[in-house]
Amino acid sequence: MKLLNETPTPEELEIYGAFQEWMASYDGGDIEGIMKWMAPDVLSVGTGRDEISRSSEAIREGFSRDFGELDELRLIDGFVTVKARGDAGWLFFQAVYGVNVKGEPIRYETRRTVVFRKVEGRWVQEHLHHSIPDRTQSDHRSFPVGPITAGRYSILFTSSRDAIIMASRWDRSILEANIAALRMYGLSEERMLNSRLDDLMDDDELTAFLRRVNSSPKEGGLFQAVHKGPSGPFPVEISVRITELEGRSIVVMVVRDTTSRVETERALRRSEERLRLAMEANDDGLWELDVPTMTMYVSGSSWGGSGDVEERFPYRVWREMAHRDDRDDIDEALTGHLDRGDEYRVEYRMNRGDGRWRWVLERGRVVDRRSDGAPLRMVGTIMDVDRRKRIEEERLELTKKLEKMASIDKLTGILNRQRFESLLQEKMDQKRLPLCLIMFDLDRFKDLNDARGHLEGDRALVLASEAVSGRLRMGDLFGRWGGDEFMVALEQDLDKSLIVAEDLRKRICDALGESFQGVTASFGLALWNGRASLENLSNMADEALYRAKKDGRNRVVVFDDAGYN
Q1: Which 8-state DSSP code applies to residue 310?
Q2: Which residues contact residue 540 at a Cβ distance below 8 angstroms, ignoring those fewer than 6 apart?
Q3: Residue 83, Cβ density class (10 Å: 0-12 exposed, 13-18 middle, ≥19 buried)
Q4: Phi then psi for 399, rounded to 5 degrees?
Q5: What's the DSSP call for residue 183?
Q6: What is the CB neighbour count within 10 angstroms for residue 313?
Q7: Residue 75 confidence class, pLDDT cut points 50, 70, 90
Q8: Are 227 and 255 in contact (CB under 8 A)?
Q9: What percentage of the chain has pLDDT greater than the value 70?
Q10: Which has the minimum average pLDDT: 117-121, 298-302, 336-340?
Q11: What pLDDT, on the 0 to 100 scale, is given for residue 274?
Q12: Whole-angstrom Cα distance, residue 334 to residue 341?
């Protein structure tokens, strides 16, 4: 048995191996070995002129009888062509057999077309068409091993799960019906054989049925209809053929109840429509990645597809639509999913051809793998989340503004007391040594408010805070303690802090001297020893400030356990 594929793919070789194993099961007449590769309702047989669809159970019985009559079955010559795509494939097999039936040698040719489907890593025959050329088998045998007996056809007729009905073409009286037909139409055998085809369908359906029968080609036809059952109308699929039997023109009708299939298809259409509407409403797209070739298939008009048309292009083209700064995130997410099974979920900016960068959310997962676990196919969705992302950014910006507003003194624009204490406590928790705390206030500020009003008092506070802010470094803390009291925290030793405090005092006097004569500033300093609490440290600075006031104002005093300097 020769494989004609010049360069077969691994999947095609797997199908070829499965077929060889099936062929090997013929040895010794192993019926179970032959039939285990077939799914139910998969076999059609014929001579090219006459063809019948049969269920596996019926064929099993026929094969058993045929193999019981065989003395010899050998393959003389044969060749195979295989095609595979994804989890589906088909195989064409043409062979010449030598058969010995009860001492009579028979040579015949056969052709098989086998449809395979990969199920749980194993290739299973989904349909087998077995045909015998007319020129070699003129007696119309479907499987030419042993005489054709009435018993074999009786088995096929009675065991079929589809309804089989034979009726006169001219008066449409029913001549024969199998058990499946009696169950399908809810009739007893006596009543069925006293009925006509007219009784199985309404007038409109009967008119359409007769038109199709009369216009069907010689080999018959297949069409959909609605028949009448015990529970009311139900959809059917009808295979019909006109033949001659005992000098009469006979309609042979095979009827399959398609209620379940129609309901499934209707539910599928509803589901697909809901999915389509939902995806259109959300501006979503569907994509599929062929991993071995890294080829993208994308549907959705906003994502490179044209409506229901699927676009195909290399993955690198898709990746290049992403913002340069986001491509590493995409690569990391994809590699993590393909190699380690991590969740594939990534947000990035994409240019969809309109020159604008928009945020998208892409999710997906591997749905098909090779037998060794290597990923073959990945599917997913892509969603426009630009509006949500912009809202998040605006909310973050607003949060920062609110946090700033909650941390800033409205009048002076420097830290308020709560925020100053919070940041100073962080420095103390981190043991940021050396650390000096400076407290100061404006001398004769109450007199200023009483004489010139609060607006002028507020202006003096603003001028003082601006003078101090212009002298401090980026990491220094400056906050309003309350009223005309201010705090400064410096990460430096006492000597350097004393120099800064003296400079701040002069700057404040210069800033206020022209508009507010007589208003100066008094300062108190306290060096943190690394153990005192924030409350104790602020009390020490406050005591030093009190001493500066008592000693005549407009001066800097340093707190010392042994006394004041």
Answers
A1: P
A2: 437, 526, 532, 559
A3: middle
A4: -60, -40
A5: H
A6: 12
A7: confident
A8: yes
A9: 78
A10: 298-302
A11: 63
A12: 9
DSSP H helices, 282-385, are 315-320, 327-340
Encode 212-265 in three state secondary structure: HHHHCCCCCEEEEEEEEECCEEEEEEEEEEEEEECCEEEEEEEEEECHHHHHHH
**Count of C-beta atoms within a 10 Å radius of residue 300:** 23
Task: State residue 76's pLDDT score.
Answer: 77
Task: Look up residue 392 and give its two tokens.
Answer: 């998040």
- CA 164 from chain centre, in angstroms, equals 45
Closest by CA to 257, choosing from 227, 212, 220, is: 227
Q: Residue 215 pLDDT > 70, yes or no?
A: yes
Q: Which of 423, 414, 430, 432 is nearest to 491 (CA)?
A: 432
**Cα–Cα distance measured from residue 557 to residue 547, given in angstroms and rounded to the nearest whole number:** 7
- Please give the model's pTM, rounded to 2 decimal places: 0.37
Euclidean distance between CA atoms 95 and 131, whole angstroms: 11
- Work out the pLDDT band at 48, boundaries 50, 70, 90: very low
Q: Strand, coil or helix: what is 470?
A: coil
* Residue 501 vs residues 102, 220, 231: alpha-carbon distances, Å: 123, 108, 100
The H or E element spanning position 180 is helix 179-185
pLDDT at residue 288 tops 80: yes
Do the Cβ atoms of 196 and 172 come closer than 8 Å?
Answer: yes
Q: Which residue, 155, 128, 133, 154, is CA-closest to 144?
A: 133
Strand 248-257 with 232-245, pairing: antiparallel
Tokens linked to 444: 């004769």
What pLDDT, on the 0 to 100 scale, is given for residue 313? 85
Q: Quick check: 464 and 540 in contact, CB under 8 A?
A: no
Number of residues that make up the chain: 565
Q: What is the pLDDT of residue 151?
A: 56
In terms of Cα–Cα distance, which of 457, 421, 441, 448 is closest to 556?
Answer: 441
Please enumerate in sequence order all residues whose Cβ is within 8 A of that of 443, keeping only pairs 6 or more positions apart, or say none: 519, 520, 521, 522, 549, 553, 554
DSSP 471: T
CA-based torsion, 397, 403, 407, 412: positive or negative: positive
Residue 527 reports pLDDT greater than 90:
yes
pLDDT at 262: 82
Q: Residue 507, SS3?
A: helix
- φ/ψ of 562, rounded to 5, equals -85, -5
- Give the span between the Cα atoms of 153 and 59, in whole angstroms: 10
